[in-house]
UniProtKB/TrEMBL annotation, chain A:
Name of this protein: Copper resistance protein B
UniProt superkingdom: Bacteria
InterPro entries: Cu-R_B_prcur
Species this protein is from: Thiomicrorhabdus lithotrophica
Pfam families per UniProt: CopB (PF05275)
UniProtKB/TrEMBL annotation, chain B:
Domain of life assignment: Bacteria
Protein name, as recorded: Copper resistance system multicopper oxidase
Originating organism: Thiomicrorhabdus lithotrophica
PROSITE patterns membership: MULTICOPPER_OXIDASE1, TAT
Entry keyword set: Copper, Metal-binding, Oxidoreductase, Signal
Domain Plastocyanin-like: 76-184, 247-355, 563-678
CDD domains for this protein: CuRO_2_CopA, CuRO_3_CopA
Amino acid sequence: MKVHTKTAQKLPGLVAFGLIISFFVFHQSAYAGMMDEPLVTKFTMDKLEISNAKNNPKKWELDFWVMKDIQRIVFKSEGETVDGETESENMLLYGHGIAPYWDVQLGLAYDTHEEESHNWGVIGLSGMAPYFFETDIHALVDSDGNLGLRANTELELLITQRLILVPELEAEAYSANIPEMKLGSGFSSLALGLRLKYEFKREFAPYIGVAWHKKYGNTADFSTEDEEASLVAGVSFWF
Amino acid sequence: MNTQKPTIGLTETQSQNVSRRTFIKGAAMSSALAGVGFAPSQLLASMPGEINNQPTVTRTNTLSGTEFQLDIGTSIVNFTGTPQIATTVNNMLPSPTLIWREGDEVTLHVTNHLDEMTSIHWHGIILPFEMDGVPGLTYDGIMPGETFTYKFKVQQHGTYWYHSHSGFQEQNGMYGSIVILPKEKDPYDYQYDHLIQLSDWTDEDPADVVKNLKRMPDYYNYKQRTVGDFFSEIQEKGFTAAFNERKMWNEMSMMDRDLSDVSGSTYTYLMNGANPATHWRGQFKPGAKVRLRFVNSSAMTFFDVHIPGLKMTVIASDGNLVQPVEIDQFRIGVAETYDVLVEPEDAQAYAIFAQAIDRSGYAIGSLTTDAEVLAEIPEMDPLPILSHTDMAMDMKDMDHSMHGGMHHSQHQGMNHDMPAVDHSQHQGMNHDMPAVDHSQHQGMNHDMPAVDHSQHQGMNHDMPAVDHSQHQGMNHDMPSMNHSQHQGMNHSMHNMSEVDANKEVADWPVEQAKIKWGPHTNMRAEDAQYRLSDPGVGLRNNGRKVLTYADLRNLYPTRHDAKPDREIILNLTGNMERYMWSIDGIPYSKADPIHLKYGERVRITFINNTMMNHPMHLHGLWSDLETGDLNYLPKKHTIVVQPGARISFRVNVDAKGVWAFHCHMLFHMAGMFRKVIVA
């Protein structure tokens, strides 16, 4: 998968920033005790898939976190590469538990679109809503004062203990046009997915599914394909 | 693989024949296969001899006397088909059974051959705190290459056990039994004496098990509710009823099939170190009395034990004699011990069947007249499903409008598996008293220990005609009810009941630390009740006589014990989704010690704000459990607090020093732990 050169330059900076934050965060919570809360990490490739849409785009969605007690550093990345052009959304966040099932998150986002990139500050919520909806909501603000909102929720429906149906909904909205990123003001996009995965083990599940997305308003005007439905196939895994 | 290490468990021949799947699924094995590779007669316990007019315990790996050398090291074991390295004592799994005699002074030299620190804690043994074996609390632990010598006088008798108190060594195999022979013969005659030590084994590194639970709390639960279950409920009850039954669980993001954090998907359950394929066997002759000493040395597993075709008479609990009670089945919490007597009449094999609480597997052995004849493997009971009773709780974040939404009908729908008595009244209350809001409810339960629900229950049982009006009357007064009114009420109830456990209530000051609700806690027991006569989820109304704590009465009177000087209320808390555990919302690492005064008698009450059973173990001091009759409080070292329930016990603070007080679920222990200082 091709990573844009600018992305490649900035990502190490983001990661280094994350490591510095984690040092301070976790260092101060290192207390004496028989058995402390362990430092736990998790890398999740939630989606790594190919679709039958035009030019067979490849898509990824991953996150990595380092957690101790109710604090964690999270790196998230999702994007799509088609015909050698890549667009992605990346976030580096500090998360702190504020409720039994919810973390508040604070950090930076870094978007890429072909040759261009865009930085945001992020505040958000991540957790589990009633009825077991895994939900992320992130509010974005850039240096010009433009605002964005990204929300994502998904549910795991067990057909059997290993065959799992995952409906998903994703929506974005922006306060202004950001032409270099092909983002327009107002409600900009909606994506729905329905994936059926089989957990050979907890850590590894191939899946097939259907995905549909639509761009709205000014965002649609920037795009040639404003609505697309496709079949997808991929794997999810974590460790 | 280091071939010089001795192999315990299966021989190599067996490991080739028996696949991992066979064990973890607990599938029925033919006895022919199970017998491959060893002569069963070698495993069969032999006829007991006599020491001090007591039958000796028949185990091949027993050590007796007053001086012991215990060597901590590693051994290769094979329980699943894959050889693994276990942490062992004297190369045995379980560790050797130690036979002590009441009144003796025992000396135990423990040498650490590991490359990490180790320790041995003598579970349930009354001794000076320096000998208790908790690293960081009572001593520094035993460093690699070092020998620590324990020396103490044995002041009790019965069935106990010992285990490592360091890291996860206990999960990795470091546990053994202790049988202390009484100075004077105890009042039971029996011809055979078998130890039944239950445990759970995983091929995974226990630290990885914890990390898996942190990464994915339902990692080991392969018995979750499916979409199909929901559709069949819709067919059965209609959409509205089915949906409403799910509603509360869904709103709280909790699962009614969350019985065990760790399951048979990784565990192989062992009986005396034998997996279901190798099948432990113990001898008897028809008509003879057999004493079975059950010890649950699991890291994380509760077992439901029964012996199809035999009644069991419980004679001791946690080492201490109780008034005999005849039962069909008992649930044994982690770290508890029960002694039972059985009298098999027929020359056949009887299955000792210990199902894991979540029915994801079992440990099994046979009581048999012929080592070649194994008992048929019984069917496992249905999967227990948690009910509203097991919750007695409410999510902190749930607002009142949601509460308002929980109407009578929905309530009813959710209460399938409940002990019939208390909730019908509860329902009545909710129905009749819409004005009683939850904050008041909560206030009452938290601040008024005088409301003793065991009494309620007892009374309701005895006098169905009376209790309803009383109950209602009480509820009417409730919003304005004060302490004295309440008390008066209890007294009048008491007059109608044999039970007087609550007579003394409110005579002593009650101390409760401020509870820290927040991200560390995802449940709150809003209406935690005493459920002493509740056998627990999955065992209610199952057609068997199941032991409950209400059945446990000390064999000897305890009426000479003083009244408590004060009461300490401790809330067991946790967040299963984040997989963290605490007391009063505060994990051990951030908690202040509990201070007890030497010479005082204190009542401790637990309220379980989680959906898990927690076996709470107080080191060094007996826990006199309030089971209904103050004159015969049974002494225990480990007390199971059922999900959403409350329970009280009394402690004679008769040993100075520093003691550990914690949940004995190994993976709950880091947070659900307190240091107790007696000065």
